[in-house]
Structure formats: C-alpha cells, structure tokens
C-alpha cells in the first residue's frame, strides 16, 4: 500500500525541524518527504492545518490494567496493592486480559501511540490483541519468584511459553521481551537466568528499578548495596535493558547506568500519583543516560495518554527544581519518540526517508492549538491525546479521522464493562 499525506506541518528528522511538506509512504516505510509531491498513491490524506508527527512510544505500561482503572485511588501504596489491585488481579482470566489489553491498545492508538512496551501475565492475550489492532508491541511476562525455587521454575516456564507463542505468531510488529519484575521481587538466580537467556536469544529485557525509597532500603539490607550496583555485579546491566522508574538513584548508580547504556523509562504521572518521588532527570540527562517515557499502568495514571505525559514531565521537573528552563518541550518530545525508539532498537521515532512509517496526524484546527506558532510547544503544553486524528503504524492506517479501522471499538468497550461489572 502507498499513502500520501499532503500539506501538513511535518516534524522532520531527529532535530524536530518543522517544515511545510507532504509525506509519501510506500509499504511500511517513509519513502519521500518534500513539497508538492506529485505521486499517485492508494490513499491520500489532506493534512491542511494539521501536524504530521512521529508516533509516540509508550516505553513502559501494563496495558490490561485498564481493567483496574478507578478501582481505588488516593491510598498508601501497600494498602492499594494488598486490598484492591492484587485481589482483583487474582480474578483475571486469559479472556479478561485479552479484552483489557484491547481496550488499552484502542486508547493508545487513539491518542497517537504507535508502539508500547508491556509487562503483565496471560500475555498471549496481549499479543493477540496487538496483532489484531495493528499496533507495535514489545511484550514481557512479569516474573516474580521472591527467592522460591518452585515459583522460579514456574515463572521461567511461563516466560518460555510466551517466547514460543510470539515466535509462532511470526509478526513483524510483535516482539518478545524478558520481564523480570524488579530486583526486590526476583532472586539473583532468576536475574542471572534472564541475562543468560537474553544473551543467547538476542532478546531484550525490561524491569522496574528504584521506584520507591522502601524497595531501595530492602535491597541494601539484603545485599549490602544499592539496586543498580547489585544488578551490575550480577552482570545484568547492558544496553538491551529498559528499566522503568529510576526514581531513587545515587550518583554512583547514575554513572553505572550511563556506562552500561541502560535506558531509563520515566513515568511521571505514576510516580506522582503513588507518591513515589521525583526522578533525577537532569542528572541522568547530563550523565548521558537515554531517557524514554511511559504511562505505567492505568491503575496508577489513570490513562495511557502520552501527550499528557509529556506535559507532566515538563511541569514536574520545573516545579520540583524551581527552574522553568528544565525539561523543555523539545527534550520531552524526544523522550516520547526517538529515545523510546532507541531503547527498542526500532527504526522509527523520527520522520525521515527510509524510516518505518509510524506516524500520527494531529489536528491543529482547534481553538486550543491556535495560533500556530511553535508546533512542538503546542503538542507538549496545549494538546492532548484526543487531538490525534489519524494513526499510521508500519505503513498501515490503523485510525482514520478518529475512527479505529482495525477493531470494533464499541464492542470492546461493552465487553470490558461487562467483565468488570461481573468481577467487582
Ligand atoms: Zn510498571
């Protein structure tokens, strides 16, 4: 298929140069960007008054957790988990996970996310939902062994089952990730197994690290070192690791993360809502650490809107440091696009010839996005996910003029409502 998007404001290349141009997509790649392209295409999209942007990459979420949206808010972390989240999660069957993931994916597509990194259980359902919806998905089974050998073997079995399922699916958009949950929930034996298997299979790893003060304390008491030092001494940290949160980090840990080429995924909404803390963004950036952006699960956000997440990053670090020059719009926009692509080793995240066609069209014909002055500023500070009008992933139009073409949205909304009404 070929698509020609005409007359838009194109956010071009890694430097985010805004140019008035057309974008021509052939197959799954961007073939040409230029003024007045006179090329016949199977599909022509008029983007007058609209912005052609790279799609957003949600580098850390738990998509089926939309099933838990609004279940309980405003509680201390342990009470929230023990009294609400975990009891509900114990009731979730594979079918529930499929429908939950589908709802989450529809929400992501509608708000301009073209790829996401996920960690949960019954992940085969998430893979199925991603394949049907046409989104790019990096899927991990969240492993927790708490030092128990029997549990470890069961978790390893689940992980290998997902790996096999995704290999068999043989989709160009769906990739397997190893997903050890965190250093405080996984034994050194399990973490070492993951590293060995990742090296052997050339698959990447996602994990949570240093999210709360409490878990850092736990690790220090148990192993006599900080979580990042602990992981580093296991030989776990390499450039194929995408680690979520990184809120409580020492200077020494930041140095190690930079040296090993680990990507840290910032989740500002979740960190604020759960009262976890403020990530040392400036220090990490100065050290040269690749910082991507994620929404985390909808239970602690409570949506999957990457455009909203960009604004939150910027505002959080400005007020926390009493410095309005920090987390500027361009830096934050790169976190949500090209830095995420770098973490995934994905040839997307920027609009340029030859890159994968993961593109969104954002409608600027709206009062809150006029006058058109600084496009990047408008997207980060004024827009929200609802302004995304068209989403193209891997050269396929997945949403057009606000309508998801791949999935019956109404059916998914109804089905999720029924599931949650029955489970509560
Ligand atoms: Zn998470």
TrEMBL record:
Any idea of its EC number? 3.5.4.28, 3.5.4.31
Molecular function (GO) terms for this protein are: 5'-methylthioadenosine deaminase activity; metal ion binding; S-adenosylhomocysteine deaminase activity
Family matches, as Gene3D superfamilies: Metal-dependent hydrolases, Urease, subunit C, domain 1
> What does it catalyze?
S-methyl-5'-thioadenosine + H2O + H(+) = S-methyl-5'-thioinosine + NH4(+); S-adenosyl-L-homocysteine + H2O + H(+) = S-inosyl-L-homocysteine + NH4(+)
Entry keyword set: Hydrolase, Metal-binding, Zinc
Cofactor binding summary note:
Binds 1 zinc ion per subunit.
Matches recorded under Pfam families: Amidohydro_1
Membrane-crossing residue ranges in chain numbering: none
Q: Which cofactor does it need?
A: Zn(2+)
Q: Where does Zn(2+) bind?
A: 60, 62, 208, 296
Chain ranges of the Amidohydrolase-related domain: 51-398
Give the superkingdom in one word.
Archaea
Where does this protein hold substrate?
89, 181, 211, 296
Its family?
Belongs to the metallo-dependent hydrolases superfamily. MTA/SAH deaminase family.
What is known about what this protein does?
Catalyzes the deamination of 5-methylthioadenosine and S-adenosyl-L-homocysteine into 5-methylthioinosine and S-inosyl-L-homocysteine, respectively. Is also able to deaminate adenosine.
Q: What is this protein called in UniProt?
A: 5-methylthioadenosine/S-adenosylhomocysteine deaminase
> What gene is it encoded by?
mtaD
């Amino acid at each position: 298929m070929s698509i020609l998007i005409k007359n838009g404001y194109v956010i071009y290349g890694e430097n985010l140069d805004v140019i008035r141009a057309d974008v021509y997509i052939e197959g799954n790649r961007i073939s040409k960007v230029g003024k007045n392209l006179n090329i016949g295409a199977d599909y022509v999209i008029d983007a007058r008054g609209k912005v052609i942007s790279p799609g957003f990459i949600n580098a850390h979420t738990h998509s089926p957790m939309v099933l838990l949206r609004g279940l309980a808010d405003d509680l201390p972390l342990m009470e929230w988990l023990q009294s609400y989240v975990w009891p509900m999660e114990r009731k979730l069957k594979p079918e529930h996970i499929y429908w939950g993931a589908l709802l989450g994916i529809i929400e992501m597509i509608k708000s301009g996310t073209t790829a996401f990194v996920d960690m949960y259980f019954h992940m085969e359902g998430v893979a199925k939902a991603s394949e049907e919806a046409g989104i790019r998905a990096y899927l991990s089974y969240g492993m927790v062994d708490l030092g128990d050998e029997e549990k470890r073997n069961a978790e390893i079995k689940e992980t290998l089952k997902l790996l096999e399922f995704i290999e068999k699916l043989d989709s160009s958009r769906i990739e397997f990730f190893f997903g050890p949950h965190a250093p405080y929930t996984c034994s050194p034996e399990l973490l070492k197994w993951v590293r060995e298997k990742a090296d052997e299979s050339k698959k990447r790893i996602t994990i949570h690290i240093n999210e709360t003060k409490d878990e850092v304390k736990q690790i220090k008491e148990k192993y006599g070192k900080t979580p990042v030092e602990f992981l580093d001494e296991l030989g776990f940290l390499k450039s194929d690791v995408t680690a979520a949160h990184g809120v409580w980090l020492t200077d020494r840990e930041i140095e190690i993360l930079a040296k090993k080429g680990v990507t840290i995924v910032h989740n500002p909404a979740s960190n604020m809502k759960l009262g976890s803390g403020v990530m040392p963004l400036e220090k990490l950036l100065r050290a040269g650490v690749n910082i991507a952006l994620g929404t985390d699960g909808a239970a602690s956000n409570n949506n999957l809107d990457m455009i909203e997440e960009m604004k939150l990053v910027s505002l959080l670090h400005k007020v926390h440091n009493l410095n309005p020059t920090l987390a500027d719009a361009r830096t934050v926009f790169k976190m949500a696009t090209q830095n995420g692509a770098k973490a995934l080793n994905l040839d997307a995240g920027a609009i340029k010839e030859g890159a994968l066609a993961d593109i969104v069209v954002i409608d600027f014909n709206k009062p809150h996005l006029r006058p058109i002055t600084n496009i990047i500023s408008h997207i980060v500070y004024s827009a929200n996910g609802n302004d995304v009008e068209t989403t193209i992933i891997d050269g396929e139009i997945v949403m057009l003029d606000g309508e998801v073409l791949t999935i019956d949205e109404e059916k998914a909304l109804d089905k999720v409502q029924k599931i949650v009404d029955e489970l509560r």
